[in-house]
Amino acid sequence: MHPGPDQETKASEQFGLDDRSLEQLKEKAVAAKGRAYCPYSHFRVGAALLSADGSIIVGANVENASYPVGTCAERCALATAVTGGHTSFKALAVATDITPSASPCGMCRQFIREFCSLEMPVFMYDRDGRVVVRTLEKLLPMSFGPEDLKGAALESGTESGTG
Ligand SMILES: O=c1ccn([C@H]2C[C@H](O)[C@@H](CO)O2)c(=O)[nH]1
Ligand SMILES: [Zn+2]
Fold first, then answer.
1. pLDDT at 23 over 60
2. Residue 105 is labelled as binding a ligand
3. What is the distance in A from the centroid of ligand 1 to the CA of 162?
4. What is the C-alpha to C-alpha distance for residues 143 and 1, in angstroms, rounded to an integer?
5. Could you tell me the pLDDT band of residue 10, with boundaries at 50, 70 and 90?
6. In this predicted complex, what is the ipTM?
7. Which atom of ligand 1 is closest in space to residue 105's alpha carbon?
8. Where, by residue number, is the active site (predicted)?
9. What is the pLDDT, as a whole number, of residue 1?
10. Is 100 inside any structural domain?
């Protein structure tokens, strides 16, 4: 079976997204892939975030001569979105040139967890535009997030953060 547009439509319905927004999100993730700076791995990744206000913020992987310093497309997009004032997100799309599609690395999953709900869908597009979609909860089960720290602060009476 070819999991093409049919599966996308189902996913958009399942997650309450309109088809047009999802199509734009995919197009922008694929376009962002073209902006990747990856002279070391030659592995292009594009990411696009759908903000609650309907705008789309993109990112791509940006590598470095000191290899570990490079950053992934997902964290690039999120940092850009957050510093642009976006605090709530409806979906994330990631695009690569491989098949089957790649999924966000562990570091990115935790980074996404900080700002996005566990129900948020992550659409992963392969080189042919085929998509696999999973919720953040599915990608990062039993996760640790901001509310866990709040619980600790309340218990010890240090919620002001001043010690
Ligand atoms: O989901 C992923 C996986 C990898 N990369 C980047 C990191 C590095 O620049 C290159 C190879 O790992 O791909 C991403 O941006 N996102
Ligand atoms: Zn990553």
1. yes
2. yes
3. 37
4. 33
5. confident
6. 0.99
7. 1
8. 74 (proton donor)
9. 39
10. yes
Which strand (E) or helix (H) includes residue 48?
A: strand 45-51
Q: From the CB of 47, is ligand 1 less than 6 Å away?
A: no
**CA-to-CA distance for 60 and 139, rounded, in angstroms?**
20
> Left, alpha or beta for 94 (phi > 0: left; psi -120 to 50: alpha)?
beta
Residue 156 CB coordination number (10 Å): 9
Q: Is 43 in the pocket of ligand 1 (CB under 6 A)?
A: yes
Q: Is 63 annotated as a binding residue?
A: yes
Q: Which atom of ligand 1 is nearest to the CA of 104?
A: 1
Which CATH number goes with the domain that contains 34?
3.40.140.10
**3, pLDDT greater than 90:** no
Domain total of the chain: 1
Q: Domain span at residue 110?
A: 7-156
- Whether residue 125 is annotated as binding a ligand: the answer is no
* Closest Cα to atom 5 of ligand 1: 72
For 15, list phi and psi in degrees, rounded to 5: -105, 10
Q: Which residues participate in catalysis according to the annotation? A: 74
pLDDT at 154 over 70: no
Residue 60 CA to its chain's centroid (Å)? 11
Residue 2 lies in a domain: no
